[in-house]
Design brief:
893 residues, six-stranded mixed sheet
């Protein structure tokens, strides 16, 4: 069977062996070693989905999926179904398998987004009651426990008592007959307790001899007093065995009753283990999940065919077709060899095949990696089919092939009289038969002839191989509709036959006369271009390089060769055929120049010109690759710098945010502390008598708090004099905490009228400053005597003598210096105000008058009364936090 031969040629069994080392259970390892290759795309997609979800689950869990306790219970289930009695160890394995499967289901249930795995375990039955019953009856060593049944517990109690009596009797004999005893111990022979007695002293201890030592000096005797007791013990042991067997039989029957569910459980656990092995192997390889593409399905143009006499192979390409993309592809066996067997570093290859390509011809020197390229592609396709990730860089895009057919290596056989050429032809014939879907019936008629100086008859492998091939082909089913070519009309031959196949040919046409081998290779590749989805062939024939320029379905590739070191680089170059290096290598290795020149004359100038062109193309490609690598490095460096700058910017922003938070916290803490201290000052003021001295002390304490907590007071520089307010300027009134507009220029008394909000008032130049903190210039005036008719003014009085600037009046508000006249008429309010002012005169300070907003008439009446009252020095509206325009503060003279 050619499919089995292909697997052997691609060393598929080695990869399966490597995969099995990642399995956690015995059945999982066996399933990995004998990995089944799916025959339908749906099976592959399911396997890939399982691998992908387990890969995701393994990345979420700290220790990954655990398969502890799950064992191979298949044979035990079969024997239980045949009414056999399972041993305690087998029953215990069934119980641990149930527990392990339940743990797996619990872990998967915790991740409902993993739909494929949840669907796999949704019908899993783990029978916890059966598991508990087994653990109730069987201990960790597989023995039946006393608690399994009362009868068994009673029998074992009698056994313990009987052994104790036997031990007591034998210990007594050991002490009394110490001279006759060879060694002071009690042992067993044939399940009966005996004593080692010296052979000459056997008459000293009457009893039955059960055994003799090798030297004959020691007799193992059962003393007469213990014979009946030993007999009773043997009977009890038999009863114990029968009862334990009955318990195990009952458990076995319960296992047999649920055998189908347990077999399904075992299959699900094995499927999960195999998916886990695929995920872990893929992770170890650094592989990526493949995506199956619609590769090169042609659409026949039947209208053009009917109107012309062109060859029916002319076609238009399917616009949905995509290119095969396998970049940085590595052979998994070479990766394993590098990691575990100290092999050489793996050189990755790039395979990008456009959808219109049907045949790729790879040329190049021997040992250059052509065969490895074939095997790498073949094994990558098989890995994708069985649900493994492909060791290539993303994206991994390739078609789903029904068949992978290969002719790699020689099939020389002295026993079958096969030459190299005959072996290749024999295998290629089977490949063509598999492409056409033909079954091998009997022996194929072979042609006789001389090939390579040998005569021989090519024979089939025998009936076993024929039957195996027939069975394999009978199992082939219709592939996924997305990958099936459209059905042509009956009178037209399809370009690609069913099934979809990948054909790998190594040294096609080799082993015979070069001219005939080259002609045969050309014919074969053209045939495969019509009947196979993709063919990749290696060759040394120069004629195959020209097929690309005759048929667009052909493509050239070559393995790179270093002219300096005279060694291959194992890199695959696309679009450039390999050039002959024989004469170059011969010249570098010291062959006589006249021989090289003579050989060159035989080859001809055209060949050298072609080699020169190819060499120029290779040099140009290397130059482009070097520039591409430089650009890629610059791009990576720019990305790295961008990430570094972004990271530093984020760090600075985070630091700024943290500093702001810290500053806000410090400010809030300072405000809180200041509020507490102010509240304490107010409480002290309220607790004692309200006097001017107490108010001044409280004001001084508040000013000290302000100096300590307000940054503006701590760092505020002394303003420079020189400011003179003009009409229209804006000035600041610090004692009111307001910014006002100047309405009038300073008068003779150094007073100005200002407006803030809706209020106008007259203030002294001493009470204002510029917005930048400059104090106004106050001109010195000569002293003058007051006129007799001076009148008290609302915002201040001139005394008959010049007085110094009054001390700041305390502005601490308490319940004693606050009155509420809201709702009163102006006349009633005046009486209340006069009484309050008289009482406030004794303590000094200020009086807070709450009159509210309303229509403003009460406020106007209050202000008119304060304007003419002799005890009032001045009055003003309260700050916003103390009531604003609804409260007036009257400062007493």
């Amino acid at each position: 069977m050619i499919q089995a031969e292909t697997l052997e040629l691609l060393e598929w069994s080695r990869l399966c062996q490597h995969l099995s080392t990642f399995a956690a259970t015995k059945l999982g390892a066996i399933a990995a070693q004998y990995l089944k290759i799916p025959t339908h795309l749906d099976e592959t997609l399911t396997l890939l989905a399982q691998t992908r979800e387990v890969y995701e689950l393994e990345s979420r869990l700290p220790s990954g999926l655990k398969f502890e306790g799950i064992g191979d219970i298949g044979e035990s289930l079969e024997r239980a179904a045949l009414h056999g009695i399972l041993t305690g160890a087998e029953l215990l394995t069934i119980a641990t398998t149930l527990a392990g499967a339940r743990n797996l289901r619990r872990v998967i249930d915790d991740h409902p987004d993993l739909e494929v795995l949840n669907h796999l375990v949704q019908d899993l039955r783990t029978y916890p009651e059966l598991e508990q019953e087994i653990h109730h009856c069987i201990d960790d060593h597989g023995d039946v426990l006393d608690r399994a049944s009362p009868k068994l517990a009673g029998i074992r109690e009698q056994l313990r008592q009987g052994r104790d009596r036997v031990y007591a009797i034998l210990q007594n004999i050991l002490q009394r007959k110490a001279n006759a005893i060879q060694e002071h111990l009690i042992t067993q022979r044939a399940g009966r307790f005996v004593l080692p007695v010296k052979a000459p002293q056997k008459d000293a201890i009457p009893g039955i001899v059960h055994d003799t030592s090798m030297s004959g000096a020691t007799l193992y005797m059962e003393p007469q007093p213990t014979i009946n007791l030993n007999n009773q013990l043997r009977q009890l042991q038999r009863q114990e065995q029968v009862e334990a067997e009955a318990i195990r039989q009952a458990l076995t029957e319960k296992v047999a009753a649920v055998k189908p569910d347990l077999e399904r459980l075992l299959a699900i656990a094995t499927t999960l283990d195999l998916a886990t092995a695929r995920a872990r192997y893929s992770y170890w390889l650094g592989a990526n999940p493949p995506r199956f593409i619609d590769f090169g399905l042609p659409i026949l143009d039947f209208e053009s065919e009917a109107s012309t006499n062109e060859n029916p192979k002319s076609k238009i390409q399917n616009p949905k077709s995509e290119a095969i993309t396998l970049r940085q592809l590595r052979h998994p066996l070479l990766v394993w060899q590098q990691q575990h067997e100290q092999g050489r570093p793996v050189v990755p290859i790039d395979l990008v095949i456009q959808p219109h390509i049907r045949v790729v011809a790879i040329t190049g020197p021997n040992t250059g990696g052509k065969t490895v390229t074939l095997k790498t592609l073949g094994i990558a396709v098989l890995m994708a089919k069985v649900g493994l990730f492909v060791p290539a860089r993303e994206p991994v895009e390739l078609p789903w092939f029904d068949q992978v057919l290969a002719d790699i290596g020689d099939e020389q056989s002295l026993q079958q009289s096969l030459s190299t050429f005959s072996g290749h032809i024999r295998r290629i014939s089977r490949i063509l038969a598999a492409l056409e879907g033909e079954k091998v019936e009997g022996k194929v008629q072979e042609t006789e002839g001389k090939e390579g100086g040998e005569e021989g008859e090519v024979k089939e492998g025998g009936e076993g191989e024929e039957e195996q091939f027939r069975t394999q082909n009978s199992e082939l089913k219709t592939p996924h509709p997305a990958l099936s070519p459209p059905s042509p009309t009956p009178d037209l031959r399809p370009v690609i036959s069913h099934p979809r196949s990948l054909v790998l040919l190594d040294e096609v046409g080799a082993g015979t006369d070069p001219s005939e081998g080259s002609a045969l290779a050309i014919a074969l590749l053209k045939y495969l271009a019509d009947h196979a989805t993709l063919t990749v062939a290696t060759t040394h024939f120069g004629e195959l390089k020209a097929l690309k320029y005759q048929d667009e379905r052909f493509e050239n590739a070559s393995v790179e060769f270093d002219d300096v070191s005279l060694s291959p680089t194992y890199r695959l170059l696309w679009g450039i055929p390999g050039r002959s290096n024989a004469l170059t290598i011969a010249r570098r290795l010291g062959l006589k120049e006249e021989l090289i020149a003579q050989a060159q004359s035989y080859v001809g100038g055209a060949s050298e010109d072609v080699n020169a062109v190819i060499a120029g193309l290779e040099a140009q490609r290397r130059q482009q690759e070097s520039k591409s690598q430089t650009a890629e490095q610059l791009l990576k460096q720019a990305e790295r710098l961008y990430k570094e700058v972004s990271r530093k910017a984020e760090a600075l922003q985070e630091r700024e945010r943290s500093l702001q938070v810290a500053q806000e916290q410090a400010v809030q803490a300072a405000i809180g502390e200041a509020k507490r201290e102010i509240a304490q000052v107010i409480r002290q003021l309220q607790q004692g008598p309200v006097t001017a001295q107490a108010a001044q002390q409280a004001t001084a304490a508040v000013n000290q708090l302000a100096d300590r907590h307000l940054p503006s007071r701590q760092v505020k520089p002394q303003p420079k004099p020189g400011f003179r307010p003009q009409v229209g300027d804006r000035v600041r009134i610090p004692r009111l905490g307001q910014t006002a507009e100047v309405l009038t220029a300073p008068d003779a008394d150094d007073e100005i009228t200002v407006r803030f909000g809706l209020m106008k008032m007259t203030v002294s130049l001493k009470d204002v400053e510029s917005l930048t903190g400059e104090k106004p210039v106050i001109e010195k005036k000569p002293e003058k005597t007051p006129e007799a008719g001076d009148k008290l003014r609302g915002k201040g009085r001139e005394s008959q003598e010049e007085t110094p600037t009054p001390t700041t009046v305390p502005t601490v508000r308490t319940s004693q210096n606050t009155i509420d006249v809201r709702g009163s008429r102006v006349a009633d309010a005046e009486i209340t105000l006069d009484r309050a002012l008289s009482e406030a005169q004794r303590t000094g300070g200020a009086l807070w008058i709450i009159h509210g907003h309303g229509t403003g008439k009460l406020r106007q009446g209050v202000h008119a009364f304060l304007q003419q009252h002799p005890l009032v020095d001045r009055y003003e509206l309260a700050p916003r936090e103390e009531g604003g325009s609804g409260v007036t503060i009257a400062y007493l003279a």
